[in-house]
Amino acid sequence: MNYEDNDAPAWFIEAVNTPYKDHYIEVEGCKIHYQKWDNEGNKPGLLFVHGGGAHSHWWDFIAPSFLDKFDIAAIDISGMGDSEHREEYCSLQFANELMAVIDDAGFGDNAIIAAHSFGGLATLRAGIEYADRLRGIVVIDSAIFPPDFQTNNDMKGSPFKSKKVYPDVETAMTRFKLVPPQPCENTYIVNYIGRHSMGEVEGGYSWKFDMQFLQKTQMDDLQDKIAGLSLKTSIVYGEKSMLFLPPLMDYMKKVYDDSVPFYCLPDAAHHLFLDKPQEFVELLSQVLETY
């Protein structure tokens, strides 16, 4: 690996060039990709999980900061990144994928899962189903909505449209955007994850993720189950996140047990570790110290 970007700071270039290895396993008939950073193999496991339409490379500039204390992997959940697509998706299936990677990576029963946005829902399901096999979970800017909010926001409003083929990478990059949309001053990060979001296809380049994954995903009502989480759980969110506005925050604090702490990253929106990557590392380090 020898990524170069004259607009990116030295710490970022060093981080994304940290060696890792690609791994592929089969989970319920689907090939799942994950990457694992080189390490001694005798530390607690830390699995990073991306959000909807994203991929494991969203963590390339974050994960290396934790190698002194953890063995680390990052997954492409099915339908995204370099994992295969399915005809249907559900949170239990995603949870099973997370646990399969934890097993294949050799993390044992002492792993922590840190997951962003849509990936947080899969991680909550893993925490509910496999509490005895995990050390804890960190849910990063992943909202639990009130029932009436869900009713008014169904999958017909999916931000992912039909897949298009672009003649070259540069043309495709002009169409890349964050979902949900937000400005991000760190364009070197957006460019990096954007270029890892596409692959070469017949006729040019196209996005890797399944454009229909939201419509094909059976969404669970986790509200009644979350209060029963029996493993260490923490919530990290961006101060300016549209998913953590006061009414939603009030609702989530009622859904989660009183023992679950909420940590705010100042001046950051939903994609908080793109907005404030180094501050995010510092905050997540503090959170993980409590596990």
> How many strand segments?
12
CATH architecture designation: 3-Layer(aba) Sandwich
Write down the overall mean pLDDT.
93
What's the helix-strand series? HEEEEEHEHEHHHEEEHEHEHH
Low-confidence stretches: 151-157
Give the CA-CA distance, first to last residue: 33 Å
Helix content: 25-40%
Taken together, the total number of domains comes to 1
**Helix and strand composition category:** alpha/beta
Assigned CATH superfamily: Alpha/Beta hydrolase fold, catalytic domain
- What's the CATH class, please? Alpha Beta
Explain this structure to me?
The chain is of the alpha/beta class and 291 residues long. The protein has a single domain, classed as Alpha/Beta hydrolase fold, catalytic domain (Rossmann fold, 3-Layer(aba) Sandwich), CATH 3.40.50.1820. Helix content is 28%, strand content 22%. It has helices at residues 10-16, 91-104, 118-129, 147-151, 169-173, 187-195, 223-226, 246-255, 272-275, 277-288, and strands at residues 20-27, 30-37, 45-49, 71-76, 89-90, 111-116, 134-140, 198-201, 204-207, 217-218, 232-238, 262-265. Strand 1 (20-27) and strand 2 form a beta hairpin. Helix 2 (91-104) packs across helix 3 (118-129). The two termini are 33 Å apart. The relative contact order is 0.15. Residues 151-157 have low confidence and may be disordered.
